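Workshop exercise sheet. Pairs work together: one partner reads the sequence aloud, the other fills in the structure field after running the prediction. Swap roles for the next sheet.
Pair: D.N. / O.F.
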Amino acid sequence: MPSSHPLPPPCHWFSALAAALDRRSAPRLAWLLVGAVLARGRRTVTSWIRAAGLSGEYRRCYTAVAAAGRKADLAAAHLAREAVKPLVAGGRRLTFAIDDTPTPRYGRKVQGAGVHHNPSPGPAGGPFVYGHVWVVLGLLAAHPAWGVVALPLLARLSVRRKDLPGIAARYRPAFRTKLAMAVELVQWAVRWLGHLGQPVWVVADGAYAKAAFLKPVTRLGVTVVSRLRKDAALWTVPGPPRPGRRGRRRIYGERRVDLAKRGGQRRGWATGTFDLYGEPTRKRYKTFVATWRPAGGAIRVVLVDEPTGWVAFFCTDAAATAADVLESAANRFSLETTFRDLKEVVGAGSQQVRRLRASVGAFHVCLWAFTATEAWAWGRAEADLVGHRVSSPWDGESRRPSHADKRRAWRRYLLAREIHAVLRAGLTEPEIQTAAERLLDLAA
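Structure field:
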């Protein structure tokens, strides 16, 4: 199937996304995104090429993948405008989640790869993993039936300073910390989606609760929710200025706030019901306002009593409620679920490319294929997405459709449209044979 062939109607988002590239590479990238949805087995770039029918243009396809890495910011903006914006229109706020995740790689010549901490080693895994680490920005969208789904839009490849000399000077990026990359992602989100008129919130892991991230983001008018260290140096809220005193008003109070003492005190606790992880949950909590230097001023602190002990969260908007803070912190877990599906279902990190830009482009193809699949399934009936379970009577558990279910349903839809297009009047035997061979290649 040549790259000039028109895309199926359900894949029009891919054409809009690929428009960020040069007109010579854009059609190939659009078809590679279709191939990323149709591919089975190991989701390498070659499997995308075969599924898209571009085997005769495989060299130019690798060029298109690298071009996607260079134009990732603009391409992600096109996808957000075409596919994601309708899913969050009319909401109270735009909530983004930021976290980093590793993708294992193999081979010494993979540019940008290094040894990193493994956050989920598993029973047989080690504490470290060799590969790439990505700082990912995902938009949290609330589905009426499925709950909160994290839609990944953009990522940054984090390369350790000690691994930079191993990259040729022509491709070597400047060193940036994960905190600086996270600030760049938030700036991108404000630039392309801030015009919707909704307040922008960012919920991040506790590793990002540092001044290098909090202060630049709050200057953008963005509210941040994250974990708070138990030994955080909090201060009281300053009182009114003394009569006759000149100068600007104090930002931080004069007395330290000891979180350990606040958490250990029996008085001041309240009980409330919050929507956590898709179901109402009763929690015992304590909340107050304090000042914190990394945040540059007043924050809302929420202590939650858990079976293993109390934990602390904070919000840079001191007027936020405990429900806002706790529900936002719980919704961040949907990004962890997205990371799992990206690796296990979409195959992120399995593309077998070595160049830095190609690795960035291949990872973004996985992100965008995931987000487009969720957008396609968003308004469809649940029975249409899990119809294949009828052939599995042992799978009688009632649960929401997984990303694998949605991806399988979209693949069946695309193949069904292709079969119906072939079964037209006046079809010749060579055309039937060509179509049959293509469908067999996709099924095998």
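Discussion prompt: Residues 226-241+248-320 form one domain. What would you look at next?
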